[in-house]
C-alpha cells in the first residue's frame, strides 16, 4: 500500500469515528493519534492525512451540499457512515484540492469504498464522484472556504 493511499485510509477512518461521535471537532486530534497508532505506525505522509481531514472539516457544509445534490435519492443521514466519509474525502480532493488529478481522487475513493464499504459501495462512490467530475467546469475549479493549512482541527 502506498503512503498516500494509507494516508487516505487513515483520514477516512478518522473522519468515520469523528462523524460517528457526533462530529466533535475538539476530539479530532485524539481520534487521529489513535488511528495513526493503531493502523498507520510509521506513516510518512501524516501531513497529507491531516490536510485531508482539515480540508473536509473546513468545507463540510459545501461538501455535504454536493453529496445531497448528486446522491439525491439518498438523504445524507441514510448514507452509511463509511460511504459518506469516503465521498467527503473524494469530493474534497476532486473539487477543493489541487494536490491530485481528479481521476486519481476518484480512483482512490473507489478503492477505499471497496476496502471498507459494503459490496455496492464502490459502484455508489464511482457513480457520485463520476457525475461530479463530468459536471465540473474545467476553467472554473471550486475553491475551498479556507485553505486546509489555515484551519487547524488536527
Please describe what this structure looks like.
- The protein is mainly alpha-helical.
- Helices cover 65% and strands 0% of the residues.
- It has seven helices and no strands.
- It has helices at residues 3-20, 28-39, 46-58, 60-70, 81-96, 102-116, 121-135.
- Helix 5 runs antiparallel to helix 6.
- The protein is globular, with a radius of gyration of 14 Å.
What is the secondary structure topology, with strand pairs?
Elements: H1 3-20, H2 28-39, H3 46-58, H4 60-70, H5 81-96, H6 102-116, H7 121-135
Helix pairs in contact: 1-2, 1-3, 1-5, 3-5, 4-5, 5-6, 5-7, 6-7
Q: What is the element string, with H for helices and E for strands?
A: HHHHHHH
Helix content: 55-70%
Poorly predicted runs: none
What is the rounded distance between the termini?
Answer: 24 Å
Rough shape? Answer: globular
For the largest beta-sheet, the strand count, sense and barrel status come to:
none
As a percent range, the share of strand residues is under 5%
Count of helical stretches: 7
Number of strands: 0
What does the average pLDDT come to?
A: 90
Amino acid at each position: 500500500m502506498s503512503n498516500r493511499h494509507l494516508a487516505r485510509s487513515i483520514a477516512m477512518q478518522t473522519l468515520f469515528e469523528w462523524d460517528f461521535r457526533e462530529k466533535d471537532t475538539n476530539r479530532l486530534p485524539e481520534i487521529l493519534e489513535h488511528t495513526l497508532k493503531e493502523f498507520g505506525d510509521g506513516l510518512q505522509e501524516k501531513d497529507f492525512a491531516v490536510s485531508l481531514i482539515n480540508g473536509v472539516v473546513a468545507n463540510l457544509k459545501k461538501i455535504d451540499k454536493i453529496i445531497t445534490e448528486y446522491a439525491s435519492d439518498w438523504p445524507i443521514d441514510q448514507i452509511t457512515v463509511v460511504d459518506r466519509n469516503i465521498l467527503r474525502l473524494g469530493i474534497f480532493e476532486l473539487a477543493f484540492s489541487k494536490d491530485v488529478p481528479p481521476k486519481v481522487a476518484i480512483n482512490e475513493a473507489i478503492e477505499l469504498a471497496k476496502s471498507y464499504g459494503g459490496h455496492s459501495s464502490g459502484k455508489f462512490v464511482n457513480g457520485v464522484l463520476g457525475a461530479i467530475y463530468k459536471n465540473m467546469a474545467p476553467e472554473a475549479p471550486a475553491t475551498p472556504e479556507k485553505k486546509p493549512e489555515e484551519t487547524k482541527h488536527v
